[in-house]
Structure formats: C-alpha cells, structure tokens
Amino acid sequence: LAKTTQPISMDSYEGQEVNITCSHNNIATNDYITWYQQFPSQGPRFIIQGYKTKVTNEVASLFIPADRKSSTLSLPRVSLSDTAVYYCLVGDMSSPRLTGTASKLTFGTGTRLQVTL
Amino acid sequence: AAGVIQSPRHLIKEKRETATLKCYPIPRHDTVYWYQQGPGQDPQFLISFYEKMQSDKGSIPDRFSAQQFSDYHSELNMSSLELGDSALYFCASSPRRAGMGEQYFGPGTRLTVT
To answer: Are the CB atoms for B26 and B94 separated by under 8 Å?
Structure first.
C-alpha cells in the first residue's frame, strides 16, 4: 500500500471551508484514494473515494491532480459536528470477487480537525 | 438502514481470561473485517473474511482466532488476555460489489483487561 502523509491537526471556525491535503507519492496505477472520518469512540465512517480529477458527494469533495501524488479533501462550511479525525487511505479497490482477497484498510496517522465557534 | 452490530458493547475481563466478540454484518454483506484501536492510536487491521474463508491477516496475535459462520456473522476469540489487549475492537463489513475502500464499521466493543 502506498504510504500517505497528512497534517496531524487542523483548526477551523464554524462556517469555513476546510481543505485537508494528503500526499501519496508512491501511489500505484490500480490504487484509489479513500477518506474516512472517525469520531471519538466510534467506528470510522467512509466519506468519499476517487481515482482522478474531482469527486463530489453530499458530504465532501475530493480533488485529485493529474499526477495523483496527492489529494485534497474539501469540507464545505464545517460545523462543530465535523470535529473528528480524518484518514486518507490509498490502495487497490478491486472487489474480493475479482481478487479473492478482502484486503485490509491501513490507517496511518490521521488529521485531527477541531472546529470552533 | 441496518448497520453492523457488535456485541457486547463493553467487556471487562481479567488477565489470562478469554473473551469472545461477535459481529453481525449488514445484510447481504459477505466480507467481514476486524480492527483493533488502542487508546490514542489509529485502527489496526487484525483479520478479514470473504465468503466464510479467512482472506487477509494483519497484526493479530496467535492468542486470537476468528471465524466467519454460514450466516456471515463473525466471532473474534481472544485467549490469555493481557493488559495490552485493552482496546476498542471494530468489526466492519462490505457488500459484494465493493472493493477495499467501502467498509462499514460497527460501533465497536470496548474491551478492558484488568
């Protein structure tokens, strides 16, 4: 799995847009980029996944440049409830039906986002 | 929508005892994963099952074993418990069509070893 590097912590005020950048210089051709969110004492929650360019869902946007060596998770107008740890993961997204293997998620050190009033 | 169910939610055991954690995946999810998260640490992968067969293995101690049953629920058995086993244990499941990225986590079992 490609190694990822992201900031240890970020602070934001409520209502601002937050951008968390993740570096993954060794990303492989078959690798996808996935972001998870985790609140204290809760299981991680899938936020968004992408391969290239831009992906948007109801929660966030994911920007991936052409070289795919980094990605940016964008959270529009954060609220206090967005205070959490955000993890960037990179790996082969192939279904176990194709590979026969249910591969693990390898969590690195996530970004602790603190949102205040 | 149905979520991953884990039981028990809290468990207190003494050193050298055994513990069994249970996981009931989301209906029609055939893949189950187990993760361990120690205090202040990031989740660490333990083991996964696909279609009731062990699929991938991480840093799971030999004292731990797991299996997935015919109804797709999974159990993590932990023996000779040590103080360092105190952690949150998460089970996750993923649907047939999904790959590595889309895993749905349960609420976790908090194991305390005294």
So the answer is: no
pLDDT at B6 over 80: yes
Sign of the C-alpha dihedral, residues A23, A51, B43, B79?
negative
Provide the shortest C-alpha distance from residue A20 to chain B (in Å). Answer: 18
CA B31/CA B4 separation, integer angstroms: 12
Q: Give contacts of B 26-55 with A, CB under 8 A.
A: 31-33, 35, 42-45, 48-51, 55
B48-100 tens-digit pLDDT: 998 888 888 888 999 999 999 999 999 999 999 999 999 999 999 987 665 55
Distance from CA of B43 to the nearest CA of A (A): 6
Residues of A in Cβ contact (< 8 Å) with B4: 43
Q: Who contacts B73 (Cβ-Cβ below 8 Å, separation ≥6)?
A: B22, B23, B24, B25, B32
What's chain B's average pLDDT?
A: 92
- Give the pLDDT confidence score for residue B2 in this predicted structure: 85
CA A91 to chain B, closest CA, distance in angstroms equals 7
CA dist., res. A61 & res. A48, Å (int) = 8
